[in-house]
Write a structure and sequence with these properties.
- This protein is an all-beta fold.
- The two termini are 18 Å apart.
């Protein structure tokens, strides 16, 4: 494992092949000389892992110190809780507090369904329920939606999609108004094309209340907000959550990363940064950018963060959509960044964990690991899966 120094000069920050560019500096993608990677390295784990990642810790501006051992593979954060899956000796859903205590674990789950780990959009949680959407695994011809008690972890019910090869995925799940809603669908021509449904299920049972579909749709986000249901397909559709009828639609090109909600506003990034006011149901602004991110979006009071397949991590001003900084990493930025203790944490396609200053994009932490999951942050703790083992680290300055 390798840790390296930060070098700063002339508005460019180099960190072991990483390049940071403040807005106003001129550079091209070719300047960084970084190539992509087809996927994380494969190989056996021949030895026991250290409690904290990396060597040569004195060369890092940050330190990750062992905090506690999570019993679950973290999937998403909700308030001061983290939800995830355990796999040994069998698969269970679990809820863990920021101190590391286990709130509950469910009974074993059916291994025939795939619980994807890609940022938590298939998981929804409120004060009463935790709902998790799956996709088919093995030889099944349907997917399944699980609904658990938020308080105890008891499995309350499951809902099956229709049988058939075009209804075997649940991509987005949201809760509200006594119902759980899910969406699925990919563009025509993909190898995994699905019928683009939005469905509403009563939370007290697995009864289908309504469903709606569109001839052309590729859903990239679903959100319940104060009686409205916001489904992003080729445009943002606002649906009546009681009936599924469309109330309005708006241009909202959120790209692969979907959208994120913060302070009653939806944000998305594609060829533009979009902000949509959920109180007025009107766009706030559109700001043009020069590339579309491929990761999901992280949001703070001040910034939107997203990465792309070429290794760029960008920070945009949440209020204006203007890019504040961009940093080139070694390879593709995987999934959603996490913001912990004033730093943005990402994992690239070479299984390198990076910590960047959230204000200026300086790379202040870098560690080569093996088989790393997406990062999840809660308070000043960073949760990761490394070499198949869930770990929680406290982020500290050196």
């Amino acid at each position: 494992m390798d840790r390296r120094r930060v070098l700063t000069a002339l508005g460019l920050v180099g960190f072991s092949g990483c390049l940071r560019i403040q807005e106003g500096s001129e550079s091209t993608d070719e300047d960084a000389g970084v190539e992509g990677d087809d996927g994380p390295p494969e190989g056996d784990n021949d030895g026991a892992a250290d409690d904290s990642p990396g060597e040569n810790a004195d060369e890092q501006a940050l330190e990750l110190s062992h905090a506690w051992d999570p019993p679950i593979n973290p999937r998403m954060r909700s308030g001061d809780l983290v939800i995830g899956l355990s796999h040994h000796p069998d698969r269970r859903l679990g809820l863990v507090s920021s101190s590391g205590s286990t709130e509950w674990e469910s009974d074993p789950l059916d291994e025939a369904y795939a619980f994807r780990n890609d940022g938590g959009d298939r998981v929804a949680i409120d004060e009463s329920y935790v709902c998790y959407g799956t996709r088919k695994h093995e030889e099944l011809d349907h997917a399944k939606l699980y609904c658990f008690s938020r308080e105890t972890g008891e499995l309350l019910w499951t809902h099956r999609t229709e049988d058939g090869p075009r209804d075997v995925r649940i991509d987005y799940v949201t809760l509200g108004g006594g119902r759980v809603y899910y969406a699925t669908g990919t563009d025509a021509g993909s190898s995994d094309e699905q019928d683009p449904f939005v469905r509403a299920i009563d939370t007290t049972s697995d009864v289908l209340v309504w469903e709606t579909s569109y001839e052309i749709a590729s859903y990239r986000g679903l959100l319940y907000h104060e009686g409205g249901l916001y489904a992003r397909g080729h445009q943002l559709r606002i649906l009546n959550s009681e009936t599924g009828a469309e109330r309005a639609s708006h241009r909202f090109g959120t790209g692969i990363g979907g959208f994120v909600e913060f302070d009653d506003t939806l944000y998305g990034i594609s060829g533009d940064v979009y902000a949509f006011d959920l109180s007025s149901n009107e766009p706030e602004y559109t700001h043009s950018v020069d590339r579309r991110p491929d990761s999901q979006i992280a949001v703070t009071d001040r910034y939107l963060y997203a990465g792309d397949d070429n290794g760029w991590l960008d920070a945009y001003d949440r209020w204006t959509g203007e890019r504040e900084w961009k940093t080139r990493l070694k390879s593709r930025v995987r999934d959603r960044p996490a913001v912990v203790a004033g730093h943005v944490w990402v994992v690239d396609n070479e299984d390198i964990v990076y910590g960047l200053d959230a204000e200026n994009g300086d790379v202040v932490y870098e560690s080569q690991e093996e088989r790393v999951s997406i990062p999840v942050g809660i308070d000043d703790v960073l949760l990761l899966m490394i070499e198949g083992r869930p770990r929680a680290y406290r982020v500290e300055s050196r």
